[in-house]
Amino acid sequence: MKGILKIAVVILAITPIYAQGGGDPEYVKFPAGYEEAFTKYATANRANQTQVAKLYANETALASYKENQAGASGSVVVMEIYSTKTGEDGKPVAGDDGIFEIDSLAAVAVMENRDNWDDAYPAENRTGNWGFAVYDPDGTEKSNDLNCVQCHTPLSGQDYLFTYQRLVDFVKNH
To answer: Of 17, 22, 14, which Cα lies nearest the Cα of 146?
Structure first.
């Protein structure tokens, strides 16, 4: 009985960290129809060198980065995360442009900037005014152990975005 109780306590202690690690879908909603409503600003191999990302921004984000190079409240950035085709060596196969060949959509990550987050949404689960969530391709919450805040927080000088320069360059040229 004591063993079961210890296991239950460990599971309960770990579960909140795991559930919020990949963001907070309770606050950062899946933007249905983003593929048509948002603008794709980049396709790139992810830093982990095993996936490809297609990046989209809504009109608020595009306008605010064009104007002052920081995301205004209401900005939303979406990253489609794709698994890649692999060669016999198990490494991703690169196309002629250097981008890995796409196999299938694995997840959709969403960053949303708001200056009026609900008080129930803890500040430690955000970076600046950016909130995060990760979804399965069908828009349902994705179970994962990513810690979005931990990786994005050091990027304060680029508005917490890994693709900041790509987005700024895109809006300058369009």
So the answer is: 22
Using the Cα atoms of residue 70, residue 71, residue 72 and residue 73 in order, give the sign of their dihedral: negative
Q: Is the dihedral of CA 132, 34, 144, 142 positive or negative?
A: positive
- When computed from its CA atoms, the radius of gyration of the chain, rounded to whole angstroms, is 18
Report pTM: 0.84
In the sheet that 51-57 helps form, which strands lie side by side, from edge to edge?
Answer: 39-45, 51-57, 76-84, 102-113, 130-135
SS3 69: coil
Pairwise CA distance, residues 64 & 79, whole Å: 19
The kind and range of the H/E element at 42 are strand 39-45
**Structural tokens at position 19:** 């559930």
Range with the lowest mean pLDDT among 47-51, 59-63, 118-122, 144-148? 144-148
Residue 78, pLDDT score: 98
Contact in structure between 72 and 127 (CB atoms under 8 Å): no
Q: Which residues contact 50 (CB under 8 A, 6 or more apart)?
A: 83, 84, 92
